[in-house]
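Dear Dr. H.,

I hope your travels went smoothly. While you were away I took the liberty of generating a structure for the chain from your last submission, since the lab meeting agenda had it listed for discussion. I wanted you to have the full record in hand beforehand rather than looking at slides cold. The sequence, exactly as received, is reproduced here:
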Amino acid sequence: MAEQRGLPEGYIPSVEDADWFINYWNELPSYSNQEHALDKLFIELCPENKCIEDILIKCSALNDFYSTNIFDIHTLAQHIYGLNVDARLRNGDYSLVNDIANVEVNGKNHCFYSFATKFCSHHQPETYAIYDSYVEKVLVSLNKKEPFGNFQKNQLKDYDVYMRAIFSFRQHFGLTNYSIKQLDQYLWQLGKWYFNQYGLSFKYYNRETENPYPYEDSRSHFWHGEMMFVTTHQSVGYWKEAGKNCLKTANEDIKRLANKYTPEQFGVIIYISALFGKWCPYDDQLWLIEY
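The corresponding predicted structure, in token form, is as follows:
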């Protein structure tokens, strides 16, 4: 299994790291194109919420793009329609988030908090920050190591508290030149990098600009391979499948290696093998065992 990680000891948010993640976001079509599509829908085509049809299509788009797993979109859209949200969005009313989030579906109360923050954010991206579990993990972890705000984890589901935490984070770490949307991009990706729960992490590459290992050290190859995987925006799904195909004919050593990692992580290893195989034809893949 992939190692469960947290923020490195001594990690401090910085302008350099924020720029790295924001640039990475903008370079990745699956992120930037989705963002532009939602901007067109929410800001250009359907900026208001005066008819159920507009709300329904916006809810459906958010649910699909963000995989928010809302199981009854129509009920949620009707709920939002009944709140008359437009004036409150323009006024930056934070209480609107919790009002949207709490919905009764088939007689049961549900809280779609993360969805509600996304709905508000895409209408007013410089007023409402997006809540996500990765962002929550970053804020809580950092606040324990380098206190910047007066909040506990369970309080971040109160949107007033959440936004105070975001503003305190921005002020404390000298990131006041970044917009709320840019902080969204930075914090979410930072959390995904260090708290990834879907089986993909990087053992050697940590966004360094230069390889920290001597060339003759096998870790140098692994660092370079992971760096290329990230910076050339390789498809995790493609290499996950390539790893599965590799195992059909792999020897026992490679199969044991694969059992130590998730399919996603093993896919990265197979990418590294393919990358170096272009330059140095290997008779076998046993050198990968050192990973």
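Two observations you may find useful: The radius of gyration is 22 Å. The longest helix spans residues 29-45.

With kind regards,
E. W.
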